[in-house]
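Archive record:
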Amino acid sequence: MRKRARQESAFLNIPYDRRYESLYLAFIAGLCAFGLRPRATIEIPSTKRRLERIIELIRGCRYSFHDLSRVQLDRNSPTTPRFNMPFELGLAVNWALGANPRHEWFVFESRAHRLEKSLSDLNGTDPHLHDGTAHGVLRGLTNALTRKIHDPNLAELDSIYRDLSKAAHKIKESRGGSLFEARPFQDLAVLARQLAEERISSLRS
């Protein structure tokens, strides 16, 4: 029996809030469908120094995906922009341009041309536009990951996402009402992998 190849990891750098939930699920579903293991800062134990652990996570991943669509001011007082996403993108870019040129990073946005204004240092880098929809995230992943071994089509990705979304409601209820925590994240990744294997034959070989 052939031994399954080591699963590559992908760092997921996205907003953690309820308004982003459907896109969060789409990223998990899509990455698992491409044979990747999603990793995120919500896995970091509160007892560890956060910045050092984020750097460890990024450096342990073959890919990283950075959504810079959340540029609005936070509604809660004090009203501030959120700098975590561009900061973590900077850590990944530094890693890729320095010690590990094999690390591939991808930028996602919801609106065309906004990145040119919000982060002009990235001019020349075309973000993958998701239009604020789960389908847009999945479409963006197919354009970012032109892999030869695992190459799911959009219909397969949409199907995996729909089933994962249905299951997410039960996971949320059983885990206390939030999907943006370590255990629900792990549960979603395991389930997404199982759903992907049911539909994509190359993941089973």
User: Anything to note?
Assistant: The CA atoms of residues 98 and 113 lie 28 Å apart. The radius of gyration is 17 Å. The chain has seven helices and five strands.
